[in-house]
Write a structure and sequence with these properties.
single chain, alpha+beta, Rhopdopsin 7-helix transmembrane proteins, Helix Hairpins, two-stranded antiparallel sheet, 15 helices
Length: 506
């Protein structure tokens, strides 16, 4: 049963990665490796049950394919910078091809043939591990080194646990666990390559815990239902546990396949696969689209009367006799200008952005923003500090990113009416896939209470007397359009910190 668990897990992972349609060489090579494991395990399972040589050949083909595919996958995992050279991969492919030819020749009857191809597979896997060890040791301290270090630790642990199966040859009646443990390792490798946002070990444990809890819940539901409605003997605990695990990890790819199939035949019924919990998200997207369509009309209908009011007030001001009348007309003009600014901000928030992406150094943009802020009268009592680290160039819209930096910085200055410190910090965030850049803007102002923090990025939410509540909402939208994220931490009386993350590749 554990053999089928490894086969099914490998197949499900391969199908999941193929369905996503990502053009990623690393993931493509992992798909090939998973399919080879699947063929090997299926052949091994049926060969142990049925006598025909067909299943034995299927098993051998899987073993032969694992060696070159493992080398190719680990070569790409180490970014082609390890001892796994292209020539070595080609040589292994050539040896595997000779093994395949020998499989369908009289040489397959040689008593050491099985040992030979197993030795090839084991040697390739050992070489892959050695290459990974050397590659990780050469890496500077980084997120990539930490994540691959987890894999280096997981491989020997898996080998130790799998060795428990050897006790069966000494008369110990232990259940076979190798297939289950290897399935867990394959799933762990999937997390390493497909989820670069997972950095800490507890993140991986959290993912595994979700799978484990879902599996246990499925097992409990089965036993409760079967025990209630059936009088016959129930399947073994191990069998039900494995079946529940396979069902849990199969749900996502099966749902994706059904969704694509159903949408092909019924393209107008796309809400069939939208859960009740996802409808709120869908409604938010639809409201955003409706807002984008209504905003220009709304702005046009308001700007025309505003222009007329402002023109009339300016004319009447020239005809005003007393100073009090002139002040009243100044108030009208000032309020018209403020309303016009609100309309402009509303348009900025509502209409979809067209990013003008160019390779930029974020440090240059931050320094430019600092020079603009330093020239502002509001910053007279403010100490501006810079902590700018070396960064890679990234694709950003410089004008929109400048708008974000200036908006957050000016908010920080306004929160420090008696003076304070405004700190700009940039740093490089290293990840397995693409590097990322962070911008941190910290003030020592009044801070934001917990209730306000929950709504700070919502449109039209403001704590200012004359604020529009659109500034930070626009900032968040701009950062999201760049494929990044923005978040804030604050303590009342101590200040606030805005953190912006932008990926190196969009």
């Amino acid at each position: 049963m554990d053999t089928l668990t490894l086969a099914a897990t490998s197949f499900i992972i391969a199908v999941s990665l193929m369905i996503t349609g990502k053009k990623d060489n690393l993931q493509a090579s992992f798909v090939g490796l998973c399919l080879a494991i699947f063929v090997f395990q299926v052949g091994f399972f049926f060969h142990s049950i049925f006598a025909p040589a067909f299943w034995k050949n299927i098993e051998y083909l899987g073993i032969i394919a694992i060696a070159p595919l493992a080398l190719l996958f680990f070569r790409r995992l180490t970014r082609n910078k390890s001892i796994l050279t292209r020539g070595l991969v080609v040589l292994t492919i050539f040896i595997s091809a000779l093994g395949t030819i020998a499989l369908f020749s009289p040489l397959s009857g040689w008593q050491y043939f099985h040992c030979s191809i197993l030795s090839l597979m084991v040697a390739a896997l050992v070489l892959c591990y050695i290459a990974l060890v050397r590659y990780v040791n050469k890496l500077p301290p980084s997120v990539e080194k930490k994540r691959l270090g987890y894999l280096l630790f997981a491989c020997p642990i898996t080998l130790i646990i799998c060795s428990i199966d050897l006790l069966q040859y000494f008369g110990f009646n232990f259940p076979s666990v190798a297939g289950i443990v290897l399935a867990a390792l394959v799933y762990f490798i999937l997390l390493i390559i497909a989820y670069p946002q997972l950095h800490e070990l507890h993140d991986f444990f959290a993912r595994g815990l979700i799978i484990f809890i879902s599996t246990v819940c499925g097992l409990i539901i089965f036993y409760f239902t079967a025990g209630f409605f059936s009088d016959s003997q129930l399947p073994s605990f191990t069998s039900v546990l494995m079946a529940s695990f396979l069902i849990v990890i199969s749900l996502t790819p099966i749902r994706m396949i059904l969704k694509k199939t159903f949408n092909y035949f019924y393209p107008e019924s796309k809400d069939v696969f939208t859960s009740f919990y996802e409808f709120d998200e869908k409604l938010e997207r639809e409201k955003a689209l409706m807002l984008a369509e209504m905003a220009p009309v709304f702005a046009h209908e308001i700007r025309n009367p505003l222009g007329s009011i402002k023109g009339a007030a300016q004319y009447l001001k020239t005809e005003a006799v007393t100073e009090e009348q002139q002040k009243l007309f100044d108030v009208i003009i000032e309020e018209v200008n403020r309303l016009n600014a609100v309309v402009n901000q509303f348009l900025d928030y509502a209409r979809p952005y067209t990013l003008n992406l160019k390779a930029q150094n974020v440090n240059v943009l931050v320094q430019k923003a600092i020079s603009i802020i330093a020239a502002n009268k509001l910053a007279e009592n403010i100490v501006i500090q810079e902590e700018l680290h070396e960064l890679p160039d990234i694709e950003v819209d410089d004008q929109q990113l400048m708008q974000v930096i200036l908006n957050i910085a000016l908010n920080g200055i306004e929160s420090m009416p008696q003076g304070g410190t405004l700190t700009f910090r940039t740093s490089r965030i290293e990840a397995t896939a693409d590097d990322a850049v962070s911008i941190t803007i910290r003030d020592t102002g009044q801070g934001i209470n917990n209730e306000a923090l929950k709504s700070i990025f919502k449109p039209f939410y403001t704590t200012k007397e004359r604020g529009t509540g659109l500034g930070l909402a626009i900032c968040q939208k701009i950062i999201k359009e760049h494929g990044g994220l923005i978040r804030v931490k604050s303590l009342v009386g101590q200040g606030s910190v805005f953190f912006i993350r932008l990926n190196a590749g969009i």
